[in-house]
Structure formats: structure tokens, C-alpha cells
Amino acid sequence: MKNNRANAKQDIVEGATSLGIEFGSTRIKAVLINNRFETIATGSYEWENLLEDGYWTYNLVDIITGLQTAYSEMKQEVERNYGVTIRTVGSIGFSAMMHGYLAFDHTGELLVPFRTWRNTTTSTAAKKLTDVFQFNIPERWSIAHLYQAIWNNEQHIPRIDHITTLSGYIHWLLTGQKVIGIGDASGMFPIDETTQDYNESMIEQFDALIAAKEYPWKLKDILPKVAIAGEQAGKLTEIGAKILDRSRNLQPGIPLCPPEGDAGTGMVATNSVKKRTGNVSVGTSVFAMIVLEKDLSAVYPEIDIVTTPDGSPVAMVHANNCTSDLNAWMRLFREFSEAMGQKVEMDKLFHVLLNASLKADADGGGLLSYGYFSGENITGLESGRPLFVRSPESNFNLANFMRVHLFTAFGALKIGMDILTQQENVAIDSILGHGGLFKTPVVGQKIVAAAMNTPVSVMDTAGDGGAWGIAILASYMLNNNENDSLEEYLDKRVFKEVDKQTIYPDRFDVEGFEEFIERYKKGLAIEKAAIENLIH
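^ thats the sequence. predicted structure below, dont judge the formating
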């Protein structure tokens, strides 16, 4: 241990470290790794999106405060543990929730509040663009947000100088470079695999579609430049260093890798950039990503086509809702416990209640739940209305209650994944999971294995998730002296000695999930009608 501490201290002093900062939906996390890819310090900042004027958003003050706080906590941990003040690092990378809409004028003014991936206000635009391109454009994508704003005749459109994602914004703020990693770019606008850039013919189609508006810009002029994993995408400026480190110790000139989306960093963090591999990321939303061997035979509104950070095509099933409703119930249980005079830590509460689900009836005892905090594109719900339903015949107990809320967290995902595995016969060699739900051993893996009917593994490295993944991409840019592909770099160097725990699907769980999902599908019509009645 002393030798490890000494090595870590030397790495910090010499700047032989890589820093990754990821903006997740509920937490901003900073991770500092050494050149052996070990996490040596972390920092974080908790935040929540807000529903303002009909849009899910985060304000710019929280974005900057969160960035600075996460970095400051990491820096203070280094000072406590190693007695060193960080003045430089080898490389830096930023990542964030994909998609959404950040539009700026030529002075750098944000024209409308940040519209996140969670918004389902772009259905008209998404459907029209999907029809024009013959390529699925989900409601979350930046181009759908832009076209919907054009459709709505919003006043800011003629003033646009550039649009970007959250990771692209942070990168631009700290480097002055309007650039984005190809994985994050693929959630803004379709990518051409052969050119590893935006699809030129679709850009021309879009420009033709809006030509009558006579805006002073063309689409390609306002999109960020696309960069590939391994490329340098700019350097930390003097202003950027002062923004990131409020103590003013950090020096400018540090190279940055292309900013990436959380999907790409999740692939890196789980070593899932090879064809026939996949990963599941579990949080406020849930998405599964499978690296494809060949193109799909049709366009499916439930399936996005994005890319790995090095440009390979990926089928992505993204559900807007996952653990928000489950977390809300957990907070209620904690409130009850405290009302009874028993304070309980959230980690213990999750451990006890999630493990209770292992004692449940296979299908959850006939209970039914929809954890829709926001609209859900896969099941066609425009507004969020969490719903829990039971009949007098249901077996209503704690174990079944917890099992059903775990099942429903993956209900919409299951519908999309069945298209890939049953209709398109997509081959999957391995699925790796990451996200907070997997911190409780076994339970999350068992549920996901049941939903996908495939083995699910969790690696020891997945605890730091996408922040660790973007730190790895920063390291790849800096230390790839052998000119390895990203796949080779991860296999040969990063994951060579990393352990993983694999859980195989249990027939009891698989059959139970299938029974539940049939009930889930039948109940969707009732859920939609209930929402319509509540709204109108």
C-alpha cells in the first residue's frame, strides 16, 4: 500500500494522471486516474433537473457550480491523501448526458434554457425528420429539438451561431473549441460510418426542408466539429483553468480528448466497444447498447443508431424512465422508518428492500406499476404519470411490491430489446452493467438478466462509471504510443486483469418477467387513457 501511495503521489506530481468529469442526470462526478487506470481520487456534486415552462432543464449556474465543486472535492482528496496540490494533469476529458439542445448566438449567449434529453416536446419534428431521412430520429436528439423550434417559429432561431450538447458546451467553455466526440455527435445528427462525420446527404435534405425560412445559417455551420477517440480536441485555456479550479492552482495548456456522451463512456467503462458486445446503463434513464455486425433491416422508432467513441455503429434502446419512481418509494420507506424513530442509511435500505424482491412470486404477484416520471418514447406516452395498480386478487406484500418496481424499471427497455433479439436476430456475446442499481450485489443483475434473457456481468471498475470511462478516453489520447485501436487499447491495457462477476438468467426469473411484461403491455392502453383523463 505504501508503494502504491508513493506511486500515486509521484504520478500526481509529474502530471502522469488523467481527469474525467461526467455530468450525469443526478450527479456530476470527477475521477482522477493514474497511468495504470486506477482511481486515485474522486469528487462529486448532487443535482436534479427542473421542469420549467414545460421543459426539463438544468440552469447554467448549477452546471458551473457542479463542475467546480466536483473538481474541488477531488483536488481536496488528493491534498488529504497524498499531500500534493494539483497543478497539472496529463489529460482531461468531459462527458455528459447525450442529446438535448443548447443554442448560442455569436456572443456566446445561451438563447433559450438548456433543453435536456428528458423532454418529449419534439414528437412532430422527430416523426417528420424520420420520414424525410428514412432514419430514426428520436425525440431526444438535438436535431429534433432544433427542427421543433423552427416548426414552432421560435424567435431565437435566426440568431443561432452554434448548437451543441452539454459535454460540448463544457468543452467549448474550457478550451474555446466547438468540437464533439463522434459518439455524442451521433445523438445530435446521423453519422455516416464511411466518412465518420455527419451524414452529408441528410444535412442537404434538412437545409432543403427549411430553405423557405431563409435563415442566415446552414446546418453544418452551426453543428460542432466531429472528433474521433484518440484525437486531441484542444487545450485548457487560461480562462478555462480559472473556471475549473477556483483556487487558481491548475495551469493551462493541458490537452483534452473529444467530449463524449454518457453512452460512449459507458461502453468504454464496460469494455463494450467490440462488435457483438453490449452494455446496460441504469440510472434516471436506462439504455442498452449493442455494437452491430451489420445494419438493421428496417427503421424502428424504438431503436436509435449511434456510434462507439471510435465510430462503429451501435443499436441503442433508450427508455426515459428507470429508477426515479423506485427511488421515490425508497425515500418514502426511509421517511416511514424515521417516523418510527429508526434512522436508516440509504445504502442499507436499498440492500434490504431490493433483496426482499428475491423472495417474491415470479411475476410479482399480479401487481402492476409504471414508473413514468416523464414521457416515454418507446411506449408512446407524452407526459409523466407514475402509476401503481393492483387488483383484490393480487398478492400484495413487500417482496412482490419491490419485485414489480424493479421489473417496471426495465419494462420499456424490454420492448425495444425484443425487437433487436427476436425480430432482427442481433447476436450478443456479452452484456455488462453499470450504474447505481448494481451497487447492491446480485439483485440488479438478476433482474436485467431476466429482462434480456442473457448473462449480465458487472466489473470491479464499473463503480465510477462514465467519469472513469472518459478518464480512460483521455488516457487513450495521451498514452496510446503503440497506435492501438480503442478496442485493442482496452483489451490489452485497461481490462487485461480486471475481474467481473457474471449472473446467468434464471428460468424462474425469465418466465416471471415474461408474465409481467405481458401484463405491462396490456395495461399500457389503460395507463394512456388514465393520463388523458387526468390532463383533460
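The mean pLDDT is 93.
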